[in-house]
Amino acid sequence: MKKLLSVALVLALLMTCAAAFADVDGVERFGKYDELTHITLLSTDRAAAGTSSYDSSNPSRFSPAQNEWINGYAEYLNIELERIIAEDNEALNARLTTGLASGDLPDLMIVGKQMFYVLAENGVLKDLSDVYENYEHKVYLDQIQESYPTILESGMYEGELLAYPSAGNCYNGTSVVYVRQDWLDQVGKSVPVTLDDFEDVALAFKDAKLGGDDTMGFAMYPAGTFVMEAYGVLPTVWMEQDDGSYVYGYTHENMKEALLKLQDWYKKGIIKSDFAVAGTTDEDISTGRAGMFVGEPWRAVTSMQTNINNDENADWVVAPIPTIDGERVKQRTNAAVNTYLCVNAECEHPEALFMLIEFDNEMRFSADPAISARFNVCEDGYQMWNLSAMRDIIRANADLYKGILIADGLANDTPEEEMDPFALSNYQLCRKAVEGDRAYLGRLIAFVDGYKIVQALLDNGYLYADYNGPLTETMTTYQSTINEALNSAVIKVIMGEDISVYEKAVQEWYAAGGQTITDEVTAYYKSMK
């Protein structure tokens, strides 16, 4: 009897090992192809600028087309992925326009909203409805669906699912305020709660020259969105009015008050003269010229972390954005779909798209140290996840969800082997920060404190996204140009020109196509009710 039990146990162990091997190999987990299958993918280089560099001497990170992820697709999925890299979105659209004319389109295409509609209108895209429904390995795809229940609606065109939409990493574009506590202590001030508090602190920092002779009141990302939000304006959001119509935030009546407040700050020298020049704000934070800024929580990991690295005394804290009376206000967030994953109607293996998405998530968030070191963060700290072809096709609330897991893990001293793989690598780095490693302090502040603020705003209904409906011909033809002119007027008024410059720009915006777009947006939202 014992011998029979032993045989049964051995067989069970062998079956378990075989299943685990099959799962790791991709046969059961991803639906690995029997033979090596060639798939072409057109996109821009999706690696985040500034966080990744290629190494011509290292095959694992040689280029977008030759790296460890490309190797992994072949090994685990039997997909020979040929990446076609466009220099930028303009070049990508040109390549697709040419492909439409010649009938030469790649199997998979990662495109923007406008190009998605061009491809859909030309009838060259695969209906993914059945492909998605029948794909049996939707572990992370189900998580994406759970975190953004209406995600598939954005990829629908005339009743067909012609693209898998990517909501990216939503809600992490919500603003918070960061302040140097060590500077506050030196000037005898507290973290600002109101706009008046904010101005008072900014002037105190500037007058005390805590960052040197060229100390700034605060480093401002164009163009003072948080002040507009304090006055009840969501600049790039279509805001519903009492009568059920919608108005584009930048044209809202309250914009004038917000612009005059920003103009006053500009005159007082709180806002520096070249605030509208791209890139200067990050530099001002990194080099320590500014002790306060309003921006997304993730900036704690970039420019703010650089400042922490450069200054051992830098002690940053995070809080909700200041408002007129200290009460919470509506804020704009990034929860609109702008990226679409399309499949050529002639592609013989459309399910490859979903295989790649599942594989990318599985490897990036694996708890296996060997897999994580290969596909996520290498032993030398290199951010290998950044090179994946499906970078950031992840659950919509990714950073917020990680923040919840990390905060809970730190509070309960959760062992790393018990941490959810989705947050494991960041949890490990946050634990280092708790133990005193300042190199990861910005990450700790972002995930535990910054995203906690954003999560509370989301839970209480304060976050609003940009328009997420279909593009119309008027939008495609006019919106970019008329918005650019309006934004230019906003900058001019902040820098001292009369408010009539803005008022005239609003009138011209409506006359040049804005009114038609407003009517179209209102009609769309009414149709969804």
Give the strand order, joined by hyphens, for the main sheet.
Answer: 4-1-5-15-8
SSE-based structural type: alpha+beta
* Global shape: globular
CATH class category label of the largest domain: Alpha Beta
Q: Briefly note the CATH topology name of the largest domain.
A: D-Maltodextrin-Binding Protein, domain 2
Determine the strand fraction and express it as a percent band.
Answer: 5-15%
Question: Which percent bin holds the helix content?
Answer: 40-55%
Q: Which architecture of the largest domain does the CATH hierarchy give at level 2?
A: 3-Layer(aba) Sandwich
Q: Give the termini distance in whole angstroms.
A: 68 Å
Number of helices: 19
Number of domains: 2
Query: Using only CA atoms, what is the Rg?
Result: 25 Å
Mean pLDDT: 91
CATH homology group of the largest domain: Periplasmic binding protein-like II
The total beta strand count reads: 16
Low-confidence stretches: 1-23
